[in-house]
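Minutes, structural biology subgroup

Action item carried over from last meeting: produce the C-alpha cell record for Preprotein translocase subunit SecA (Flavonifractor plautii). EB confirmed the sequence was re-checked against the source entry. Recorded below for completeness.
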Amino acid sequence: MRLFGSERVMGMMEKLGVDEDTPIDAKILSNAIENAQKQVESRNFQTRKTVLEYDDVMNTQRKVIYEQRRKVLDGENLKESVQAMLSTVISTEVQAHMGELKHMDAENWREVCAQFRGLFLRPDEFKFTDEELQQYDAQALTDLLQERASDIYARKEAELGEPLMRELERVMMLRVVDEYWMDNIDAMQELRQGIGLRAYGQNDPVVAYKKEGYEMFESMIAAIQAETIRRIFLARVQVGATTVKRERVAKVTGESAGSDGTVKKQPVKKGQKVGRNDPCPCGSGKKYKKCCGMHEDE
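Output recorded by EB:
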C-alpha cells in the first residue's frame, strides 16, 4: 500500500482513524491491497527477468572463452586455429585501410605494412608506389602478406621444432585470452552499472546492454587474435638453454678441481707450538700442562 496503494485510499484510512492492526473488510480497500500485491509481484518478476537477461549476455561470452581455454588446456593442436587467426588479422588490417576503394594508395599501404614490420615483414619489403598498387586489389594484397607470413611462420616452426612450436602457441594463446577476458569482465561490469540511465533517453537498457556488450566482445576477440599473433612471432625461445647452463656449471666445477676430476689437497698450516710450562693460550693464567694441555698426551 505504501508503494502502490491509491493516495485516495490512504487518505480515507487516515480520516477514519483505522489502526494498522484493524482488519480491513471494505471491498474497495481489499481490491486496492490486492492490486498493490499484483504490482509488487510484477515488479519483482521484472527485476529478476532483467537480471537474468543481463546474466545471459555474460554467460554467452563465457561459453565462447571457456571453450577456447578448454582446447588450450587439453593440449589440442592449435596450428590451424593460429593460422586462421593470422589470416583474419591480415585481412582485417587490409580491409580497414582499403575501405570502399578498389585500390589502396601508397600512404595507407605503408600504414598496413607498419603493423607487421618486425613480425614477418622487413623494413625494406613491399614498398609500392601508387602506380604499382593499381595492380593489386584487397584480396591480392591480403594474399601477398599471407604468403610472406606463412613462410616466416614455417621457418620459425622448423627452427624450434613442431612440439616446442605447438607449446608456444598454447602458452601464448592462454596467456592472452586470460588477460583480455579479465579486462572484458571489468568493462562489462562498468557498462552494466551505468546502462540503467539509458531508460531516461527512451532506450531499453537491456537491449542497449546486449548491443554494446556484443560490440565489446567482438572487439576483444579481434584484439586477442592480433595480440596472440604478435607474441608468437616476437617470441624468442632459446632451444637447449637449460642444457647449456648446466654444462657451464659443470665446466666451472671441473676447473675448480684437478684436471683429472680430483680435488687437489691443500697444505695444512700449523700454528706455533705451545710449551707445556708456558701460560695457557686460553687466558686462564695456568700453565698449559695444568689447563688445556692436561689430556694432550692421552
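Discussion: The mean pLDDT is 79.
Next step: EB to file the record with the rest of the batch.
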